[in-house]
Batch of 2 targets.
Target 1
Amino acid sequence: MAKAVLEVKNLKMYYFTNKGVVKAVDDISFELKKGEVMGLAGESGCGKSSLGFTLLGMPTPPGKIVDGSIKIDGREIVGLPEDVLRKEIRWEKISMIFQGAMNALNPVYTVGYQMTEPLLYHKGMSQEEALDRAQKYLELVGLDPEIVYRYPHELSGGMKQRVIIAMALLMEPSVVIADEPTTALDVVVQAQIINLMKRLKKELGLSMIFITHDLSILAEISDRVAIMYAGKLVEIGDSEKIYYEPAHPYTQKLLAAIPRLHEDVEKLEFIPGQPPNLINPPKGCRFHPRCPYAMDICREQVPELKEIDKDHYAACWLL
Amino acid sequence: MAEPILKVENLKKYFPLKRGLLASLRGEPQRFVHAVDGVSFEIHKQQVFALVGESGCGKSTTGRLIVKLLEPTDGKIYLEGQDVTEITTKEEILAYRRKVQMIFQDPFASLNPRFRIFDVLEEPLLIHGIGETRAEREELIYKALEMVKVTPPEDYVSRFPHMLSGGQRQRVAIARALILNPTFIVADEPVSMLDVSIRAEILELMKDLKDKIGVTYLYITHDLSTARYFADWIAVMYLGRIVEIGPATRVIDNPLHPYTRALLAAVPEPKPERRNVIKELPIKGEVPSAVEIPPGCRFHPRCIYFQKGLCDVQQPKLIEYEHNHWAECHLVGKF
């Protein structure tokens, strides 16, 4: 069995807002194996992006890691001081491909300047070495290396997203977090970027967490899928299991809400109501107010993730 | 066949590009963005007509021309036989807008944040002088909210938009469009900013309303899966022109135009078994600028079936290849 590059245990990250404590990431545990792509899906506000930022050791203020452990290549990063995180962990060990290629680049610097910055700072490379490395990675993502001399506004959306991907890979991190890397892109460009990520997965053996709300895109790349609801993981397992034998009612409903391109769907299903407020989440299973199968126990006790099949876990009292 | 509700003929919209003082002094010709460049289609009663394409293909501009938020450069639009492009007076435009309403993409931006839901829905009634007393208007507002299932209405009328969820806001936006009892609705990407489950809910609602109150939709989207689900007809737009048009399932199951094929190949599907297969995308390059339209077939620089001397010289015609299914390509059936 492949070694885990990322181990997350009982991770809790809360936002301490004026209105109360928002439990955005609430007791989450999982492992990411080397060379594996794990998809992380859920509706807006379920905490999936919060989890992504937390894994980089940088929860967005007023968020704080309250409890739990994040180990990358066996090294604990929770509790490390900011300067160590910055120097030794972020980009070196774990990096992020940001959402919205349009805004993630600084418009006043050339692509080359932005790409070489971490190399000069982290690796103490010379200007030439750094530029060389940047160009190598631009080629890897299918861009003309001459782009280092261009400014972001001279590039199309798809090209910018490729630059962002090249930047995330530049320091050869063990884990890459991709946060909605294809939203806001047109469907053809989106497919090209997904193809690129598939190729990089194969060529570089990338270990990646792919965050999106779109289960169709997720299926295109993920080996394993984790479904998040209201700050908790409700189901996790191999992609085939999640898509063809979903166990949790929430996963089942999400899949039934997707219109299919080549199938006639009589009626799309939807989940009545809306995700709960994470300051006062419902008692028991957080999905119970929207669940058609809710029983008494669901309103009282929190279900734990349990193994229902080999490597397939779900948190539901029905199982 | 019955007369169409909406008929669009050779519709064109060119936006002039800004040019500098120097350029105009030098007498350089004015350049234009050819946003919509000769579009024709018909929509029949109680049908959903989807206009599909990538950003910048002119689909939203077409929608805005139909609701008269923009004036066309050339071409005609007929609603129930009436020539819409001839309408100029304020009264006529008002009367027209009572029949044609629009739903916008972003329910966070399309509702005035300082208006309570009551005011949001009362505004169109006041503009059109419907309902003499407040009580009459209130009744209409409650009815509209019930229709879009924002219930009970009395719980919502005094709320501000920020107190509603995204799905509820979009339903209020739909209620605002419906409250005038229009015959035709232009829905510009109404679900693309919503979560999957809410997206399904809004699509179901719009479908339901189509049957209940007999409204006809122009559904503008980039998403072929929802177009197949919701629409009866699909027209695929590329660089300001419709390159393929036909019954929704035919366009998806038997695409004729190379561009439609490329779009379809690019649609992600929830089938994990293909996750390690790199998809073939039968298309090259990127969308060119709508200022300098490529000569001949405007898709030729990106087409993998491109034939020199034909596609880059002659503009193809929209031809019916199977019953009701048209495409604008020289090479249909030859690749």
Target 2
Amino acid sequence: MTAIAARPLYLRRFPGRTTLVVGLTVVGLMLLAALAAPLIAPYDPVFQDGTARLVAPSAAHPFGTDNFGRDVFSRVIWAARVDLQIAFLGVVFPLVIGTTIGTVAGYFGGVVDAVFMRIVDVVLAFPYLVLIIAIIAILGPGLKSFYIALALVGWVSYARLIRSQILILKSADFVLAARSLGYSHSRIMFRHLLPNALISSIVFAMSDMVLVLLGGASISFLGLGVQPPTAEWGIMVAEGQGFITQALWMTMFPGLAILLLSFGFSLIADGLGEWLGVKE
Amino acid sequence: MRTPILRTVVATAIAVLLGGTSIAEAQGVLTIGRREDGTTFDPIMTAQNVDFWVFMNVYDQLVRVDRSGTKLEPGLAESWTVSPDGLTYTFTMRDAKFSDGSPITSEDAAFTLTRIRDDEGSLWSETYTIIADMQTPDPKTLVVTLSASSVPFLSTLAMPGTAVVSKAGMEAMGQEAYAENPVASGAFTVKEWLRGDRVVLEKNPNYWEADRVKLDGVEWVSVPDDNTRMLKMQAGELDAAIFVPFSRISELEADPNLKVQLDPSTREDALIINHTNPALAKKDVREAIDMAIDKQAIVEAVTFGIGEEANSYIPKGALYYNDANLRRPHDPDAAKAMLETAGETGLTLNYIINAGDEVDEQIGVLVQQQLAQAGVTVNLQKIDPSQTWDTLVAGDYDLTVNYWTNDILDPDQKTTFVLGNDVNLNYYTRYDNPEVTALVAAARIEADPAKREAMYVELQKVAKADVNWVDLYYSPYRNVTQTNVDNFYQNPLGRFFLEDTVKN
């Protein structure tokens, strides 16, 4: 036992290892591509070449060109920066807010719990994307509004998840011990309870990234997110829609990129869940 | 042995019955695919083509615009005379009936015009306040007296909003019910309207020109997605489809089963400029912007070469269009130099785009890059279509693209809207040139056609010199039909002449 435990984590066998490794590789490669975009992309993503419109994939343009003569490959690579940012920032804010509220509600119970959970119920009563679109419509289009909308809507799932964990844990012996030692509420909540309750939220966050990514793509598709001419996969799919019968590459490649990144995040979520024994 | 035979017989019978009926039904009913469904059949309550294009085959008018879109022809009014002072118009009604069999009288015509002028819900009342009085001495005679002489008056009678409604029908049914299922004065009646899906029209046997109508009926079907609509055409599920995307035209033209019909339109797409922006208030800056924009590149990228570079606010082919109007050469370097001289280096402009409008977006992206070459930074901002108009009204923009299609054949309507400086502040550009405003008013009442034409040519020149906005391109109506459909066309004002359409 000790011999095995002493081996570094990445060499150890644990449930979900393959899934996790594949997922991390996919996301890692895309992250790398995004960071190295200026080096990888052969063209400026917004440069329009009027003489090379709707050119099919070739050596000069591996993913073809769009209706403005922009290189689709370069745009897909540059768009990775935007989309990874969307996936990350779109999850961080709801995670932080939801976790805090869920912990407080679960720990104190009673009126506090009732109030927060009714708010959660209200938010959940609306379809996710519709509510986000409504909030963006009020705040005005743009990524900033998208993040705010996600923070306002997305926290509820985390709050529910954490609360249920806290409810289970708060009668555990180590909590009773901490209480009897006279620790403050916040110390018990955030030092003792939260670290034990957080794992399931982290796993959920990974699969949430997929939803956020698709949400971001949908919002941009509707013209409420990233503004032209910035490359973003959702926008690219939207722009290509009108040309789908004669220039499939305009929609196919950004679509595949969305698929691939979602796939990566899903695998990470599954792998983590299996490893840490979290059931979604 | 018996059962299979019986089965075969029954199956054949069913097939014959089904096949028989569907062939019979398909024979004379033309299905047309379009983007969205209409909103009303009440002519005065709408200003939208989706409504006009359908109800113009349900109603007739006193005076109509002909196929060429440049002449007026008699409709329900057989003939008319104008008094020498240009104030009194006397119309003689022809023998015509509504779809319910009742005669169309001068009283119905007077009722129609009173409604468009006085009804609270009328979107067009302003145009018709010039009507001072209407008399109906007998059912065949309508006498209209104007408060001032107006050359475009007859043209405004051919505007879709003045489609003749039945006074008795409207009073019996009430406005709302009438707007759903009107008493028809035109070629077709409304058989069924499934909101959001389709409008089913059926031939009106009481129409005075019923002999001219070859179709038994028309179905306007909503197929919002352009690609889906074209696929349905290719699959033979629709007889005709309108709004063919520019990008699909060459492909559809190559299809042996389809006919692509490009009809001249009065549509002009223009770059709207907000003259209250301190930089854009300078004429040199606007001129530089005009020079920095490569209209030909827009024609090629957006319309796939089908449109045509615009050089005047009056569309090509419309009355008094000045072909010789100035076309500033595309010269980004000269534009840059002009901007420097004007002290506007590093100019940054806010450009509003209708979210979801493909053409708007494409123009925006192109203009952004073109102006960048002249050193102007353009920030594109997509806004929900329901809000873009408000931004324009509030003047909360620097640049935006909009289009206009004429509703009447006289240039006065668009000229007033674009240069007349009335309530809409010249299409919300806030362009203000008192001489132009005065000329617009003078041209409206000039009775001599030659002098009038000269005035409109002058207006086109001045507007171009002042760069009231940037004329971008003209584009045709783009429709497609199956090869067995003949005479499916629109006139430049957009009216479909379905009374002439044949489905073989």
